[in-house]
Amino acid sequence: MKKTNVPGAVGRYTLLTIWAIFALFPLFWMVLITFKSDAQMYNTTFLFTPTLDNYIQVLTGSDYLQCFFDNIIVSAGAVLVAVVFGVPAAYALARYDFKKKEDLAFQILSYRFAPEILVVLPIFLIFQKIGVYDTYFALIWVYQLIAMPLIIWVVRGYFEDISVEIEHAAQVDGYKWYQIFWKILLPLIKPGLVAAALLAFIFAWNNFTFSLLLTSFHIQTVTISALRYIATDTVHYGQMAVAATIAVLPEVIMAICIQKHLVRGLSFGAVKG
Predict the structure, then answer these.
(1) Are 150 and 112 in contact (CB under 8 A)?
(2) Could you tell me the residue ranges of all domains in the chain?
(3) Tens digit of pLDDT for each residue in 253-263?
(4) pTM of this prediction?
(5) Averaged pLDDT, 136-149
(6) Each residue of 90-116: b (16+ CB within 10 Å) or e?
(7) Residue 1 has what pLDDT?
(8) What distance in Å separates the CA atoms of residue 121 and residue 69, rounded to the nearest whole number?
(9) Is the CATH number 1.10.3720.10 carried by domain 52-267?
(10) What integer pLDDT is reported at residue 170 of this predicted model?
(11) Residue 232 pLDDT more than 60?
(12) What is the per-residue burial (b if ≥16 Cβ within 10 Å, else e) of 63-89?
């Protein structure tokens, strides 16, 4: 019978607990200050009189909820577009050999790490010229450029890990190419696709530069709406903390709901190229 190293296990769990407290303390502190008034904000102790005024001001005294739903629409729409077009593109890059394939793949990836401030001005001028400035379509179109490279490169690695013999065997059994794609390949890449889609959603949800310069009065995201709590003479930290706390809820809830696929998706597969 294998002996358990009790002191070593206790030490590991102790270190993990300390690290978890260290990592989660900023989130705990952010939630804590949502219950503080502006007068109590600089009180660094845990003893204070809690108040819900910050939540009331943000949820009922402003259009923050409308900005929240605007952010959901543009972020989810961008991820949906990226998945619909990115998954077939990832399959093509994984399965077919054509001239300058890797150059094309790298160009797609370059959309992700290109400085946003470098391209936002020409995009701003183009959108104003064609009349789509400050619309859902404009933000979804730009945000999918953030999401699609991540979808393509992660899912491409999963397609490359799947043996082509599986597709050949399905063809012998009489499956059409679209049946192979929907019934065999998509279930196999599901963990990677879910993980990539969640990461793409997070990047789109937290984007600041594009939403700042490509929206005005009709559409605003939560990253921009948080700026309104910075006044000329003071900063309403409690209200800003409420806005930030509510803003992270979709990401946390999604991560909890799909954690099985998320862990597997981030643990297996590889990005190749």
Answers:
(1) yes
(2) 52-267
(3) 888 887 776 66
(4) 0.84
(5) 92
(6) bbebbeeeeeeeeeebeebbeebeeeb
(7) 47
(8) 26
(9) yes
(10) 87
(11) yes
(12) ebeebbebbeebbbbbbebbbeebbeb
